Amino acid sequence: MFETLKAQPADKILALMQLYRDDPRETKVDLGVGVYKDATGLTPVMRAVKAAEHKLWETQDSKVYTGLAGDPAFADAMFTMLLGDAVPRNTTAAAATPGGTGACRQAFEMIQMARPDARVFVSDPTWPNHLSILKYLNIEVVPYRYFDEETRGVDFDGMIADLKTAKKGDVVLLHGCCHNPTGANLNAAEWDAVIEVLLQTGATPMIDIAYQGFGDGLEADAAATRKVAAAVPECLIAASCSKNFGIYRERTGLLMVVAADTSALTLNQGTLAFLNRQNYSFPPDHGARLVTMILNDDALRADWMAELEEVRNTMLGLRTALASELQKLSGSDRFGFLAQHRGMFSRLGTTPDKVEALRDKHGIYMVGDSRMNIAGLNAESVPILARAIIDVGI
Ligand code: PLP
Ligand code: TYF
């Protein structure tokens, strides 16, 4: 029967990972997949995660099923980290999911259950998996202008104009912080204007937040999500623990549904549990349990926060180093945006043939849309990349 299947498009980011692995050059530089790497190129298990795993191994006496929405303690701990006191806990439904991807998938399914004709507005560009899952679910996608190719910042006027065309029953997907793939983000006043438009149009926001703590700090990175959640009657929040806890393969995420009051809680919570049951019954627990242990233990949490700050500051240091190297080499400020961007990624804003030239001639691997993972750099490779960028004529 399966001869009827059609080949599906490959994940370009993961395909690039393989190309990099197959490249024999010792000087190659991997700026592809969004994984944090330290100065030696390793992605270590975070100290607090190791400590929590050790404690878990010693104390866990059963691996019996949790609940369809996962352990409520995980939802509580994540709610506090992400939303603080922005909205009451008892208006928010929450379910653990396999990673932030799982949270997005369940969110899209919930949207479709509630409104089969909903359109989802997505930034142009956005994380490719948003588009791929929406297409798979047959949900209409409406791109909104986001990246300004000229300034490499946000095309804010374009974004607002496009968001004004949304209507009640539509969903506007926003990256909570550290936009993937561009690195360009809204400032606080711009977030306020987006909230205004959401309130005017009645469209429902969905916030995907996969990099809390990678931009300006744990609290600062949650500020926009909190503001949106507090201002609108309903919103969806898809959170990932993959990056900020470094537990990529454990598949740890949470989907939250914030409602205006407590009356919708039972229905929303029941829907999240139902959706988990349809797809995989119980969500993965190991990563969620580690996160819960870390967030609920003062010493573990302090150590995790300290290490996360090291990670964040390393990336910021690499940003400023690259921007200043490029300023020296180019004699201009046209790469200043690299220091303004936040998170793991920056979109260089160049053509696919120049991205290919960087790869073929210099062994520098970035995604074809010129997205680079800043964490793939170190003190040695920053000047190498800067020279290569100038060499290929970017
Ligand atoms: N959303 C965005 C924008 C991402 O970049 C990612 C990837 O890290 C995710 C969601 C979800 O990642 P994961 O499923 O590994 O938690
Ligand atoms: O954008 C990235 O690189 C990360 C990791 O199918 C990732 O979000 C890449 C591809 C993918 C899932 C996650």
Automatic annotation (TrEMBL):
Entry keywords, A to Z: Aminotransferase, Pyridoxal phosphate, Transferase
GO biological process: L-phenylalanine biosynthetic process from chorismate via phenylpyruvate
Cofactor(s), by name: pyridoxal 5'-phosphate
GO molecular function, one term: identical protein binding
Subunit structure: Homodimer.
PANTHER family membership: ASPARTATE AMINOTRANSFERASE, ASPARTATE AMINOTRANSFERASE, MITOCHONDRIAL
Protein name: Aromatic amino acid aminotransferase apoenzyme
Species in which this protein is naturally found: Sulfitobacter brevis
